[in-house]
Amino acid sequence: MSSETLYMSLVGEWSALIENGTVRVGERLPSVRKACAIHKVSPSTILATYRALEDRGLIEARPQSGFYVKGVARLPLPLMRRQSETHAGEQGEADQLELVMSAQTRTDVIDLSLASPRGSDFYPTTRLKQIVSKLVRQHPELTTDYPFPPGSERLRRQIAQRALGSGCVLSPDDIVVTNGCSEALQLALHAVCKPGDTVGLESPTYFGLIPLAKSLGLSVIEIPTHPASGLSLDALELLLSEKRLSALVVQPTVQNPLGASMPLAARQRLAALVSEYRIPLIEDTPHADLFYGAAPPDSVKSCDKEGWVLLCSSFSKTLAPGFRIGWIAPGRFLHEVMRLKIAGSLGQPRLLEEALAEYLESGGFDHHLRFIRRQFMAQMEKLRAAVASHFPAGTRATSPSGGCLLWVELPKGVDTLALFQRALAEGITVAPGALYSARGRFNNCVRLSCCYPWTPAYERALLRFAALACEAAATPAP
Questions:
Q1: pTM, entire model
Q2: How far apart, in whole angstroms, are the C-alpha atoms of residue 342 and residue 66?
Q3: Which domains, from first to last, does the chain contain?
Q4: What is the pLDDT of residues 253-280, one digit of tens each?
Q5: Could you tell me the sign of the dihedral formed by the alpha carbons of 283, 289, 290, 292, in that order?
């Protein structure tokens, strides 16, 4: 490679690093000597590169100090990939989900759709910080010893005790601790299905389940789900009688995104159906502790006598999202889940497991849950009132049984993927309804959230999104 070609290549590399935020404003670039060692080029080539970056206004030289990144205009997120930029057949919902999740990581947007709060207003962070600090002082081995499955016995004992509240009688040996509920779901599906199998999902369903199923080589059948009573058991029974399902994933309590909760009689019937047809049921319950009532109905797992129900949950929606601690009680599939866990992530940070265990032992979790439920209930009322008052005439919204998520159906013809793009251009992000279907249904729906402090900035963003929705529907608010 000629020196001129090499120099231009380095200019392109550093321009990209600066423009995409890898090297941020105010950060110092490597010294000429260090850059020579990194790129294995001469000092003259590095100096030429830095001068070109300076000419482009990307960096500045500071006397006796070096070269630093200057402020640059933030580039907008890329639009959907064109066909030429990806393999045929790999577009669709995967690209849409990537785009939405990329927007959710940005600090310059107001997110109206997250399923768990950001910041410390809704979490006992001070107490958790105290516990972690104490454990590091008293048990430094927690930061050095490898974790092994099934995870902290102390934590598994607390999980088993709390499971009694949903009617489940579990021992610590029935439970495997995981990296969040996402890994619990992945382990469960992997344990009970093989490539080519078909899994039944609620419709709409949690958007992470669709790419997870496809990554395991599974086909998906969507099962109608009522916004109040949950999964249609009549539709499920028809599918089971036709032997079209190899497994089923259901959120019977505070379903994401609808907020539905199945009545106890429906849970009992569901447990009987999977037992009769010998079909594994993955019961996904990360939002169950956010049920608004005095207590949710007992879990489907509590009605399971033969081990066909794999119960999955986590503390990410209620206590410490950053800890990424979840768990699974896989019933008759325990051995296979353990095998997959050993072959995969192996374990979670022991320090965080023990910190959660100590917090749960302290007895403060139930008090915290009462606090967060009250907050969500109050803010959900405000969110539903705002939708009723400011969204287009004809808009419908769920009445969730718990949690912080609101499913909103805009008038027919509104394309919420296009609406998402318009809102993002104004610093607002939502979750378009098409993400919640393997078939691209619900394109006129969005998921909103009230898990944020109700600040003037949040309210302005919500009302601006409502105005954009009215424009898209060509319909004013009622």
A1: 0.85
A2: 48
A3: 4-67 (1.10.10.10), 88-119+365-472 (3.90.1150.10), 123-363 (3.40.640.10)
A4: 999 999 999 999 999 999 999 999 999 9
A5: positive
